[in-house]
Amino acid sequence: MATDVKVPTLGESITEATIGQWLKKPGETVAQDEPIASLETDKVSVEVNSPVAGTLSEQLFKEGDTVEVGAVIARVGEGSAAAAKPEPRAEEKPAEPKTGEPQATVAGGAVNPAGAGEQVRPRDEDAEVAHDAALTLSPAVRRAVLEHHVDPSAIKGSGKDGRITKDDVLAAAKDKDTSSAPAQAGAKVEAKTPSPTPPSAPASAGEQASTGDRKEERVKMTRLRQTIATRLKEAQNTAALLTTFNDVDMTAVIEARAKYKDLFEKKHGIRLGFMGFFVKAVALALRDVPSVNARIEGDEIVYSNFLDVSVAVSAPKGLVVPVVRSADAMSFAEIEKAIAEFGKKAKEGTLTVDEMKGGTFTISNGGVFGSLLSTPIINPPQSAVLGMHRIEERPVVKDGQIVARPMMYLALSYDHRLVDGREAVTFLVRVKEAIEDPTRLLIDL
Asked: What are phi and psi of 169, to 5 degrees?
């Protein structure tokens, strides 16, 4: 008797998801609570676990299909994989190659040139199957491998249990293209050289190819990317967005980190970063300008007497903003540990919906990617976002002398319906003062 595998409850207001990747194939043995599929929601990726031990007997949806909460997406039967003989889905049936037709290879096994078939392996390779990373490739990943001509055995997987994801393949393909760019550039220059062939002579196929290929690729937006696009456009259409800037001398913070980083890491097991200083500075500034931490609901303004900071972190499929709760009451070590844990989960795709709900204010650090200056967009229903940028030495005037100082531009984007320009500037100045003189953070000034 087969057991249904259903889409679990995904969180408040989330009613559907997209099947991102099948982690198990029909006929494979699964343990109880073992992940068999990965779902993509508009906020996070969620794994679907098998409710029982047995054999995956049927997949009812394909990768990329949209499924509702509670829908049956697969069935797990009793017994082992050896006893089950499931019929592969149409898109997974191996195609018979034509005589003389070249075969693409993936990690030593021949594959249907169209990229949709299962691997065809010589019998003498069966003993190596358990060690071949290609066997864990989903159809979508396998197609990407064939399209971009990359070797999956050379790719380090970022998915569950080291599985290779489509993003891993695309990144490897991008690295390969970058490394081959000089050779391609030389080929293009050579192609522009006039040929001595008379105008009446037709160009050969090889000569036409040497002029370069013009390619386009259509990739369906992930549900997370669709949601990011919708929410950012919603913010632009709804809020009266305005950005004010300031710069801050990072000398004092850099010196403090250099002096105490070893002791801090030894005691707390985490590195002392910049974010703890800025979270503390924001908490201090909000006491003077509480409207920056407020939001508009209908015709009312909701003020929060706590600081739940949404910290923008990079994930393989886009930017996510987990929330550090009651950050104003946390120590430097607690803040740094929370942010480091969120960063790790974002890369692994294990952030939960609850960890990303709420938030009263956002801090985004584009400086880690090299950004000098930007105008960040608020995360509705929040009313403000602070943008940090890269630190670089610039000439500034100190006590009548031109000196080099490690400077950072700060940007505060805010909803002008709620926050006045005077309040925004005051808030940013308070942050600047606290960063340039961290003693203020200790004596509450």
From this structure: -65, -45
Contact predicate 372/388, CB 8 Å: no
Number of domains forming the structure of the chain: 2
Phi, psi (degrees; rounded to nearest 5) at 116: -105, -10
According to DSSP H, which parts of 117-215 are helical?
139-148, 166-191, 205-209
- 413 three-class SS: strand
Whether omega before 35 lies within 30 degrees of 0, making that bond cis, reads no
| pTM, full prediction | 0.58
Residues 6+ apart with CB under 8 A from 137: 106, 145, 152, 164
Tell me the residue length of the chain: 445
**Is 197 a domain residue?**
no
Residue 42's domain is classified under what CATH number?
2.40.50.100
Say whether 297 sits in a helix, a strand or coil.
Answer: strand
Closest listed residue to residue 73, CA positions, set 10, 164, 160, 145: 10
Residues 135-149: tens digit of each pLDDT: 456 656 766 777 777
Smallest CA-to-CA distance from 242 within 423, 366, 371 is with 423
Tell me if 208 is assigned to some domain.
no
> Strand 66-68 vs strand 16-22: parallel, antiparallel, or unpaired?
antiparallel
* pLDDT tens-digit map of 286-302: 999 999 999 999 999 99
User: CA-to-CA distance for 418 and 291, rounded, in angstroms?
Assistant: 7
The structure tokens 């229903």 sit at: 381
Residues that are catalytic: 416, 420
Q: Give the separation between CA 384 and CA 386, rounded to whole angstroms.
A: 7
